[in-house]
Amino acid sequence: MASVFKKGMKSRGILYGVGIGPGDPELLTIKGRNILKKADVVFAPKAGIKSASLAAEIIKKYIPRDKIKTIVFPMSKDKKTLETFWRRAALKVHRELCPGKTIVFITIGDPLIYSTYMYLLRYLYKVDKNIDIRTIPGISVVNAVASAFSVPLAEANERLAVIPLPGKLTDLKKFLKQFDTVVLLKIGKDLNRLVRFLKKEKFKGSFYFAKWLGRQKQYIVDDISKLNNSKKALGYMSTILLRRRKR
Questions:
Q1: Residue 71 bridge partners (DSSP)
Q2: Which of 60, 144, 167, 205 is placed for a possible disulfide with 22 were both Cys, Cβ 3.0 to 4.6 Å?
């Protein structure tokens, strides 16, 4: 693949990747909040040109709106399309990294768990191998969904798996056999199909569903029967925690 970056591009600013938590502004860490306060520019991801940025919405009470710039990371599975937007994002961020500047890229949850931040880093290093990047962890949705129901993710010698929902739901069976707790992310529009599958397999463990954790429209359910063809539960911000052990 031909590079779109110019050789010799250097920066002396600092880029912070800050995890801002699952949705509740109060779950932003003290360190993350302090970095946001001293930022010259804050970049927030969004799914489309006309879309709002949920990440920007979460932090709006902490920093002025005029400091926030959005970057489009489309919800696409086409690799070439994604690479085009990742390159554009890297160039846009790098242009702001002037000497003495503090630049922040925010991500919902933790920056290093299934986030756009990782793709940004990959392409930024192609721009500038000497770029100064510092990553600040955030509370992930994995922690948040367990806390919403006050259930353990793992105890004693239990094993925990955090995975995107498999394309073939039959692949989920091996995870449910090998792990005591399975957290499913990236459920999207496949929720109803997943619910039907679990019922068909006669899943006997504990089931916990959460969407929009920490937001006003938060929706949590611990009874799988309540999610049968539920349109309210559909969407990207949905997470399911499955425990082999009954309550």
A1: 45
A2: 144
Whether 188 contacts 236, CB under 8 Å: yes
Query: Are 56 and 82 contacting, i.e. CB atoms less than 8 angstroms apart?
Result: no
- Pull the structure tokens for residue 138: 């955030």
Rounded CA separation 244/247 (Å): 9
pLDDT tens column, 37-76: 999 999 999 988 878 899 999 999 999 999 999 999 988 8
Q: Are 32 and 18 in contact (CB under 8 A)?
A: yes
* DSSP codes joined into one string, 41-95: EEEEEESSTTS--HHHHHHTTTS-GGGEEEEE------HHHHHHHHHHHHHHHHH
Token reading at 56? 């920007």
What is the β-pairing status of strands 102-107 and 41-46? parallel
From the centroid of its chain, how far is CA 16? 16
Alpha carbons within 13 A on the beta-carbon side of 160: 12
- Residues 11/128, Cβ–Cβ less than 8 Å: yes
Sheet of 102-107: strand order equals: 68-72, 41-46, 102-107, 14-19, 132-136
- Residue 102 in tokens: 């503090």
Cα-Cα-Cα-Cα dihedral sign, residues 110, 111, 113, 117: positive
Q: Is pLDDT of 148 > 60?
A: yes
